[in-house]
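Subject: sequence -> structure tokens, single chain

Hey, anyone have a minute? Need the predicted structure for the following. Not urgent.
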Amino acid sequence: MTDITFDKSRILFEKASKVIPGGVNSPVRYFQPYPFFVESANASRLFTNDGNVLIDYCLGYGSVFLGHCNQQIGSEIKSQIDKGNLFCTPTEKETLLAEICSKIIPCAEMIRIMNTGAEATMHSIRIARAFTRKTKIIKFEGGYHGAYDYVLNKAGSGAAGQEYSDGILSESASKTITVPFNDIESLKSVIDNEQNHNDIACIIIEPVMANTGLILPEKDYLNSIRNITKQNNIVLIFDEVVTGFRLALGGASEFFGIKPDLATFAKTLGNGYPISLLAGSREIMSGLAPRGSVYQASTFAGNPISVTAALKTLEILIEDRNIIYPIVARTCDKLVEALRNMVQDKKIDATINSIGSMFQIFFSDKIIRNYYSVKSSNTKFFMDMFKILLAKGVFIPPSPFETCFISTQHNEEDLEKTLDAYETALAKVKKY
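Reply:
Had a minute. Here:
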């Protein structure tokens, strides 16, 4: 198979760089020497401006669970467009979406619909502070919850590998405590510290970390955090922007059987359309304006287009949940098992983490259990592999600090081509 090229994308990137900072509208989209440009997509494939066809394992960083250009969702969207796309008044569809989500999400007694994951997590922290009358928050090394001051004291992959971000107020950063993932003793130590003990409003956590590679919680880790938060009157926030509706219909909360106080969702909820939600107990959520005193507002929140996409996405997932989730998990397991055999046969030091429809390979002989173990992996080998895979028509996120995703539309042909590309890539990486 001849390697594909991206000559037109190079020209388009040079043009973009003159009017867009860095040539991209989100730093995770950039990789050296330049990113490729996409013209269209369908099912599991991307079609670039260069005329190339790529098998997509990025999937909008996990958003496109049901595949690109899902016809059922598209048909509903087209019907709604004929009726209007923005009213800035309540619609019946918003209530219907909230009612459906309240039956699916374990902690969801009340729901506020928003636009992005960052927006949902930001307001979850604000309402937790208001509810507890405390000021400090705890997050985890490498965890990414959006690009705003509360949580960018130390960034995950959302800051393109940067550990700190200029422009962050030191006063805001000083209220955010960062601890290692999968280390319950470190968390206990921070909470028991005399300076923190009575001033921790919330713990925000990705129950499965998916923005610093893919890191799974160790046995009883999440249960221990739930118990600690209850004992210390700390609001527990599950950031399920990635795992929500993907890991299970009710997200990681359903998957692990743990009920947080608040949870945030986005990505899979709209299958690529911009929508998010904040869900939680009635007691806490009642603090949001206009009922309460925590102000949150948005012109585009609950817009009919995104709500329509979410309603259809959930309809499909609910109707076929006993088919969809086992199938994508089996597809992922098949791919991961083949990759493990490859690295073993080639005697490559590599670890592959996976869960449900998510996976990632790390060039390391160590267990990947936290941010530091990802940082200590061979990132050069990863980028060498990424470039070879891309030349062979397989697109994975361009960083080991991200996660690869499977959609319902990946098929046997995709897997065969993908494994052939990995075979070539791993053989070349081994020679380096």
